[in-house]
Amino acid sequence: MTVSELLLAYEPQIRLGFFLGVLGVMLFSEAAVPRRPRSQPRWVRWLNNLGLVVLNTVLLRLLFPAAAVGAALYAESQGWGLFNQWALPGVLVLVLSVVILDLIVYLQHVMFHAVPALWRLHRVHHADLDFDTTTGLRFHPVEIVLSMVLKLGAVVALGASPAGVLVFEVLLNATALFNHGNLRLPTGVDRVLRWIVVTPDMHRVHHSLEGDETNSNFGFNLPWWDRLLGTYRDQPRAGHEGMTIGIHSVRDPRAAEWLDGMLIGIPFRGGTPEYPINQRFQEKTDGTA
């Protein structure tokens, strides 16, 4: 079996193994050293958030059986994509694949905050009234499918390394669980670590009820894009213990934390009055700002 064949054959097992391992470590760590007291019943949130990720996983496997690694392998076999046109060292292609795909995910995240129709889907993630590692799994199925389509296009256009794509996906899943953790890190550790990876304190700001804080710290894995592109915010105004998690339009726990609300109620009912980027644009065009 070639390395490419091994990657394709064992990609689900590799991803699942890392996912379960990191999830277990995070759930234990949150219980041991929590950053904030819980505001919602744990088991209701966990059951519904984890139920959503199971639904999304089944949907992706049905629609995209080979997933992003399969797309990278096919592009490689056909000589498609930027990196497949150059004789670059394999390690360099792997690293560039991970870094560029992470930038694309950052830009995609900003886009889901900037387009009202996409925000309807993405606000399912933000409507969680509490913040822990299961929040990092909570995305509407349509957003997951759109994200995968964008990712497949980026992988083929880049000619990304199949190994790089697998490393990227494992890292993205692991860091999403980590940076959504209700985990207290020592201040000095957090200060250093957030130059290398998005930390829980850094990303928690993004889940603030306050609009300008919601529209900051878009990175999931690498923290550099927020600093370079002007979307970085160091701390929430109210502090991590005092800040309110969620969005203005969804404050009812029954609507926010149950699967029917996540699938239908939050994305498809009501307008987008809580959406700050769109509001600022409208204010400028209306001459009210």
TrEMBL record:
Ranges annotated as spanning the membrane: 12-29, 50-74, 86-107
Compartment(s) where it occurs, according to its Swiss-Prot or TrEMBL record: Membrane
Highest taxon in the source lineage: Bacteria
GO molecular function, one term: oxidoreductase activity
Membrane listed as a keyword: yes
Cellular component, GO annotation: membrane
Single GO BP term: lipid biosynthetic process
Domain Fatty acid hydroxylase: 95-231
Keywords from the named record: Membrane, Transmembrane, Transmembrane helix
Secreted found in the keyword field: no
PANTHER family attached to this UniProt entry: STEROL DESATURASE
Stated name of the protein: Sterol desaturase/sphingolipid hydroxylase, fatty acid hydroxylase superfamily
Species of origin: Thiohalorhabdus denitrificans
